[in-house]
Write a structure and sequence with these properties.
The chain has helices at 3-16, 39-42, 74-84, 90-101, 104-130, 156-165, 195-215, and strands at 20-23, 48-53, 65-68, 136-137, 145-149, 171-172, 185-189. The chain has a four-stranded antiparallel beta sheet, covered by helices on one side. Strands 1-2-3 form a three-stranded mixed beta sheet, with no helix packed on it. It has two domains: 3-89, Aspartate Aminotransferase, domain 2; 116-215, Aspartate Aminotransferase, domain 1 (Alpha-Beta Complex). The chain is globular. By secondary structure, it is α+β, with helices and mostly antiparallel strands.
């Protein structure tokens, strides 16, 4: 959301006594501009519960997340957390604390931002070469995924199934919609793949989508 819309939302939460849960996923990986101010950072009335995770920043197996809470919620959320997680990973948290305070995390984020934008460019280049006229991609400003828009003649659910048969994992954009309207799309991840893997994947996806067109 734009800054004005964010401020409007915060004022609404203050006026109604509502809580805003802000999952600031992938905010560290913004490529073409400075990071957008979080709602929590703009909040003057303590209405935002801010969530984050190190699993996406460092490694999926780390399984350490965090929340930044308004003071009045600290006790109740701490109590709820103690009932949900009986044995938090103490050793991993100690090591992670050192990793952060010794500035390794900041260096890691800078390095991965460079790697991810290169892989994003590789995916877009491969899609333009292998899937011109079939998959339309607008480079996203952040994250490790993008959406490729399909022609109306191709159902994104069928496309995902055909891609899976070729060993390519994608998510149908329609599954993220409360109401499906307009064009379908494929959500494609690029963070974990090399340039050669991305090229091979796009070639397989091109074959899969051509089969969708003949069977539609």
């Amino acid at each position: 959301m734009s800054l004005s819309r964010r401020l409007e939302l915060l004022e609404w939460a203050h006026a109604t006594g509502a809580w805003i849960i802000e999952d600031d996923y992938d905010s560290e990986f913004r490529y073409n501009s400075r990071p957008i101010a979080s709602l929590q950072g703009l909040d003057r009335h303590g209405r935002v519960i801010y969530l984050g995770t190190f699993s996406k920043l460092l490694a999926p197996t780390l399984r350490i997340g965090y929340c930044v809470l308004p003071p009045e919620l600290v006790d109740v959320i701490s109590t709820a957390s103690s009932l949900i997680t009986r044995h938090p990973p103490s050793l991993e948290q100690i090591v992670l604390t050192d990793f952060i305070t010794q500035v390794h995390l900041a260096r890691h984020i800078r390095r991965m931002r460079t790697i991810y934008i290169e892989r994003q460019a590789d995916l877009i280049e491969a899609a333009e070469r292998e899937l011109a006229g079939v998959l339309e991609i607008t480079p996203p400003e952040a994250g490790t995924h993008l959406v490729g828009w399909l022609p109306r003649r191709i159902d994104d659910q069928i496309a995902v199934a055909k891609a899976a048969e070729r060993g390519v994992e994608a998510k149908a954009f329609s599954t993220y919609c409360m109401e499906v309207s307009g064009r379908g799309g494929l959500v494609l991840g690029y963070g974990a793949f090399t340039k050669s893997q991305i090229r091979a994947g796009m070639q397989k996806l091109a074959t899969a989508l051509s089969n969708c067109e003949t069977q539609k």
